[in-house]
């Protein structure tokens, strides 16, 4: 599961959770949602609702849901705007439908270190924002949308990255080695070959993060973002 952070979807941080808005039924009563923003590329327009923001925050274990702070809602809105941009881009490319097995695997990754300790804990959070369970159709669709965006990110930003042996050697010499000597004076430093795979992953992630940040900066000039109400 690829997690994208607060600064322009930085690697391994905040979470992609929804790409389309839904209306839903909770406690046998129809919930009237509120659109807080739209993102349009001139062909398609994606809505961002208050429910979208709550659903996003429900899947962040350390965010309080009762009550949800304005600060957390604003942070979620900025993340959702970027998600919508990626969602619009992803729809330009042909893609296979997300399978039930892929959805199940993605949900499974939410239960573990850094996320939720048990399925019951996750379901409790989901119920607080209107879902019935992990099997709720709307929640399953959110996860499917997330997977579709992840596939787009893998194709768009990872498939074409080339990291050379010279790049790895330079990082080892200029970054890894000085940092190791500073943190562990007197210890025998691992060789480049021992750390090559780790360094390669670091460099790939840095390149992806840089490319995503640049893409978002340019994409925000092409799309129209309309904020309709304060959160």
Total number of beta strands: 5
Sketch the topology as an H/E string, one letter per element: EEEEHHHHHHHE
Largest sheet, in brief, is: 3 strands, antiparallel
Query: What is the typical, i.e. mean, pLDDT?
Result: 85
Low-confidence runs: 1-31
Structural class label: mainly alpha
CATH structural class of the domain at 25-161 and 220-227: Mainly Alpha
Helical fraction equals: 40-55%
Kindly provide the radius of gyration, computed on alpha-carbon positions and rounded to a whole number of angstroms. Answer: 20 Å
CATH topology of the domain at 25-161 and 220-227: Triger factor/SurA peptide-binding fold
Output the number of helix runs. 7
- State the strand order across the main sheet: 4-3-5
Shape: globular
Distance N to C terminus: 29 Å
Return the CATH architecture of the domain at 25-161 and 220-227. Answer: Orthogonal Bundle
Q: Strand share of the residues?
A: 5-15%
